[in-house]
Amino acid sequence: xxxxSNNLVGILNIITFLISIPIIAGGIWLSRQANTECERFxxxxxxxxxxxxxxxxxxxxIGSCCRVSWLLxxxxxxxxxxxLLIFCFTxxxxxxxxxxxxxxxxxxxxKEYRLGDYSNWLQKRVNNHWGKIQSCLQDxxxxxxxxxxxxxxxxxxFYKKHLSALQSGCCKPSNDCNFAYVSPTNWTRTASSSSxxxxxxxxxxxxxxxxxxxxxxxxxxxxxxxxxxxxxxxLNIIFLVFLIIVYSVGCCAFRNTRRDNSYKRxx
Length: 267
What we know:
Structural class: mainly alpha
């Protein structure tokens, strides 16, 4: 007898199988279009994700539609591990992004970012891979709009600008440095310039250097990561609810399949 739960699992897995095709295609497209190491970094994870989704979908589809108990068992086991993994990652994401925020400056439209304000775990990861991250930031040309503005931007207009965390941390010197403004990416040292902040000595007016080696640049990146991870964590909660519903339906389909197979075996 055709069971509603088996049909529902089959329909859901047809949908996820179809979704996996553009994911794999996107990964292959990235591998052919990538011009930098940063773009190529996404290629393998995207393809691996697409293949994983495709294989799990096939297991669920064949297991539910063809009444193959062991395939349904494998499907449910993988689903359980996936639910557990996403749950743990969601908790972890909320914990490591709990610390850190930009410091608002009086009379400035942008904020200052300090590396020490963020999670020690995130700091360690960023510090260990900063060479590659730095080259990716330079390739992304996050400072291009400020460089293009040049001397046409007056100092009072610049201070009113809303800069992203990365632009504030990587494209200008820290507010502590008290450098004299020339243009958005051109600053000169003065007699009152600070020497206590190590970023002040790293600043360079060269468009290819700027403050990409600064602690503030790392902090700006961490602020971006924090915001992105929090959004992902919220989406994960929604996805978890969906997966738990699918898993519950899959359990019903597995029970029905075993029952049907038992009836066929012992008429």
